TrEMBL record:
Coiled coil: none annotated. One of its GO terms (molecular function) is oxidoreductase activity. The gene is LOC100711195. This is Dehydrogenase/reductase SDR family member on chromosome X. InterPro entries: NAD(P)-bd_dom_sf (IPR036291), SDR_fam (IPR002347). SUPFAM superfamilies: NAD(P)-binding Rossmann-fold domains (SSF51735). Pfam families: adh_short. PANTHER family: PHOSPHATIDYLINOSITOL-GLYCAN BIOSYNTHESIS CLASS F PROTEIN, PHOSPHATIDYLINOSITOL-GLYCAN BIOSYNTHESIS CLASS F PROTEIN-RELATED. The keyword Oxidoreductase applies.
């Protein structure tokens, strides 16, 4: 009994201490400002979870720069409202909403098939949608929710759109996959024999595992694209502590305290989108300068675990098996 209690408590303590450290560092760094980015006329971008928060700000900025943006999300009302708000700001906006539920592999496949049938290019894929600290539960296909939504749904989406990304990339203008991860990956562990957290469940540990999986996937995908000679780059991004609805599943007293602190000290969604947009748009990240892990507007080192080639390959191959992609 005591062991089970400790298994639940320790990941929570680690995550909250890490959050405090990240918050202090970003307060010391000061506010982020997005540098001037090149126009994106003729480019097409997909942003998952673009109906609100960081995803909305990413979509809005891409539209402002002339990109054709497709917002993928499960809440149709929220997504259509986001499209209307963007169109009110930018009269020539090319933005639309398409249904995408990352907790349903069928929905992911339908979204990707619908996009491919339009014969559009795909220059930017921002895998932004996610859940955090949700109660124990399973996706439509039986996967633990953090692993299924944050990681596996985006893995499948990227895989199904990879040929389009390859065809759209050119020398000097590579296609980019941006996976919105978190500093929580630093305390995550990948349990290859229990990716669905069946042996013991901690929402904190499950969240951290999903974010580590995203970083491992980002790094391995980038290596695969580079070694294959494809004009596609892949990176992982930490937007920092941002005042969004992501924290809604915190224990009620913590959520009340967090909501007050967030308004005072967290980054705004627009600030949180800055590093994501830099990774998606910066000309400095062309060629050999692409890939990596980005936080606070610059490239940062991650934990040694993220560079473990055997772990990267093992997770990649297990993911293919789980998704019947072999």
């Amino acid at each position: 009994m005591l062991s089970a209690f400790w298994c639940h408590l320790l990941p929570a303590i680690k995550l909250y201490l890490l959050g405090l450290k990240v918050l202090l560092l970003q307060l010391l760094n000061g506010p982020l400002r997005l540098p001037v980015m090149p126009r994106q006329d003729g480019n097409v971008a997909i942003v998952t979870g673009g109906g609100r928060g960081i995803g909305y700000e990413v979509a809005r900025h891409l539209v402002r720069l002339g990109a054709h943006v497709i917002i993928g999300g499960r809440d149709e009302q929220e997504g259509l409202a986001a499209v209307r708000r963007i169109c009110e700001h930018y009269k020539e906006a090319k933005v639309e909403f398409k249904k995408l539920d990352l907790a349903s592999l069928q929905s992911v496949r339908q979204f990707a098939q619908s996009f491919r049938e339009r014969d559009l290019p795909l220059n930017i894929l921002v895998n932004n949608a996610g859940v955090m600290l949700v109660p124990e539960g399973r996706t439509e296909d039986g996967f633990e929710q953090h692993f299924g939504v944050n990681y596996l749904g985006h893995f499948l989406l990227t895989w199904l759109l990879l040929d389009t990304l390859k065809d759209s990339g050119k020398s000097g203008h590579v296609s980019r996959v941006v996976n919105v991860s978190s500093s929580a990956h630093r305390i995550g562990q990948i349990r290859l024999n229990d990716l669905n957290s069946c042996q013991s469940y901690s929402s904190h540990a499950a969240y951290c595992q999903s974010k580590l999986a995203q970083v491992l996937f980002s790094f391995h995908l980038h290596q695969e694209m580079q070694s294959g000679g494809f004009q596609v780059s892949s990176c992982a991004v930490d937007p920092g502590m941002v005042d969004t609805a992501l924290y809604c599943h915190l224990w009620t007293p913590l959520h009340l305290a967090q909501s007050v602190i967030a308004r005072l000290l967290f980054r705004t969604p627009e600030e949180g989108a800055t590093t994501v947009l830099s990774a998606a748009l910066s000309p400095a990240l062309e060629g050999d300068c692409g890939g990596g892990y980005w936080a606070n507007g610059c490239r940062e080192m991650t934990t040694p675990l993220t560079f473990d080639p055997q772990l990267q390959v093992s997770l990649w191959e297990i993911s293919l098996q789980l998704l019947n992609l072999h």
